[in-house]
Q: What sequence folds into this?
């Protein structure tokens, strides 16, 4: 597993380097700007979390150019471990995205004050970023093995749109369950429902992906 | 003699292809090299896929080290080194990073041995694999396959991208590898001259079927090709004919024992035969 994680890291790192530089520059801009209009911070937080996760998933395509997909099946690792390594890698890059988002929003608040209506808004932004990233991974990985490496890009788009759709759908359901104006507890509960759902689907997707992968021939 | 690898009646069909691997049966004894010969699309890589479980066979058994290998048998895969034709490793890695990756996969990974092979094969450690030539990627794959101390090497066209000098060096590495009694190599190759140099046994595959397996010494020293005129060909006992091929003014006939054939059919020129010519006769010729 350690070797697989290292390979996943090397696969993602060149794109992540470029993305990190862009995010640092954007972060400096966001922090420097007055945050009376919080849309910049909102966009930055979501972009960093989803962007890093997306990079991790997109790096799978790089393996397809060589016989590595076939070669690693001859190495002493189980197919389930190969799949788990991708899920772990996405989680790790999501955490990096969360760190970027956290530092930037913290600096902005420290310099310009709290930009949102409620304290729970920051939590909800993390919920949406994490939720979209996890749902995206949960949809993408089984599709990747089902449809083949050459369709990686279209599956990424489908997964991202699907994940946004699922989070929006869950939010709508929560809004129906807890009509306006929601209490702080209800907002937190709604966030937890989205997080738990995303985590559940992400975890369930891992054995599903392994099942699909077991049918795959190289 | 005990076998490190045994295939019994292995078959595999592909739904979107006419190609079928049919009842492939072969064995590789400990301490030997089995050359696996066949034209493009004959079924060599499919057979290797069935051996290594990268392809699910439809029927038959594959035993490695006396046991059928499942996905969970990672300990068995510790003992197998594999080299595929072309790019085995992701292009974004350097040899140094590859070593780190493989160190995390193989418990027996020997970084010092890997470094030794990198030096021997003149491979730069910090150069990305995408900047390697085809020959360099093959050499890197060989170094990686050997550096975790495998018992069985499975090489799919592993010498095809190499120049003659490097191929010769590589063949020496193979011969050194099988000096250990419990080491063996399955070597699939188009370059039959390589097999003539190192293989102990040669198996011919054509259209998904094994057509012949023989010891290399038998092929080189006993097999022969009779150059017959039509009338001479018609007088031959069909039992003596392994395969024949009509050419402009003669018919080449493959026989299992050139000396016996010479004695039996006086007046017919009988030559020793190369593995290349045997393959041509078996693949392009007709069998009696």
A:
């Amino acid at each position: 597993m350690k070797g697989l994680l290292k390979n996943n890291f090397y696969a993602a790192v060149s794109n992540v380097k470029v993305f990190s530089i862009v995010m640092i520059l954007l972060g400096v801009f966001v922090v420097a700007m007055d945050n009376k209009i919080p849309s910049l911070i909102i966009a930055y937080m979501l972009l960093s979390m989803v962007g890093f996760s997306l990079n991790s998933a997109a790096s799978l395509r790089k393996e397809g150019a060589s016989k590595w997909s076939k070669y690693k099946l001859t190495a002493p690792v189980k197919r389930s471990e190969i799949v788990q390594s991708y899920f772990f890698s996405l989680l790790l890059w999501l955490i990096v995205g969360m760190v970027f988002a956290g530092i930037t929003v913290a600096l902005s608040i420290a310099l310009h004050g709290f930009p949102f209506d409620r304290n729970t808004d920051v939590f909800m932004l993390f919920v949406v970023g994490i939720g979209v990233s996890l749902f995206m991974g949960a949809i993408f990985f089984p599709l990747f093995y089902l449809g083949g490496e050459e369709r990686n890009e279209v599956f990424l788009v489908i997964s991202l749109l699907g994940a946004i759709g699922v989070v929006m759908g869950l939010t709508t359901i929560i809004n129906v369950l807890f009509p306006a104006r929601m209490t702080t507890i209800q907002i937190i509960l709604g966030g937890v429902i989205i997080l738990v759902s995303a985590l559940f689907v992400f975890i369930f997707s891992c054995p599903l992906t392994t099942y699909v992968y077991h049918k795959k021939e190289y | 003699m005990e076998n490190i690898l045994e295939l019994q009646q292995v078959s595999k069909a592909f739904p979107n292809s006419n190609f079928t691997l049919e009842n492939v049966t072969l064995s590789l004894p400990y301490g030997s090299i089995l050359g696996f010969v066949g034209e493009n699309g004959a079924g060599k890589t499919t057979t290797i896929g069935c051996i290594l479980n990268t392809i699910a066979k439809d029927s038959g058994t594959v035993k490695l080290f006396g046991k059928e290998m499942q996905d969970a048998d990672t300990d068995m895969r510790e003992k197998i080194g594999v080299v595929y034709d072309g790019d085995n490793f992701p292009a974004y890695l350097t040899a140094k990073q590859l070593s780190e990756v493989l160190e995390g996969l193989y418990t027996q990974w020997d970084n010092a041995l890997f470094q030794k092979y990198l030096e021997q094969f003149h491979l730069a450690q910090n150069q990305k694999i995408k900047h390697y030539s085809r020959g360099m990627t093959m050499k890197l794959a060989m170094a990686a396959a050997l550096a975790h101390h495998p018992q069985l090497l499975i090489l799919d066209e592993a010498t095809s991208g190499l120049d003659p000098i490097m191929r010769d060096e590589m063949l020496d590495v193979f011969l050194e590898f099988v000096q250990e009694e419990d080491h063996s190599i399955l070597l699939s190759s188009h370059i039959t001259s390589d097999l003539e140099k190192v293989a102990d046994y040669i198996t011919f595959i054509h259209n998904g079927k094994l057509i012949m397996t023989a010891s290399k010494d038998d092929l080189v020293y006993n097999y022969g090709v009779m150059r017959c005129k039509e009338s001479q060909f018609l007088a031959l006992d069909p039992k003596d004919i392994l395969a024949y091929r009509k050419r402009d003014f003669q018919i080449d006939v493959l026989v299992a024992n050139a000396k016996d054939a010479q004695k039996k059919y006086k007046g017919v020129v009988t030559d020793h035969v190369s593995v290349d010519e045997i393959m041509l006769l078996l693949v392009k010729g007709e069998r009696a």
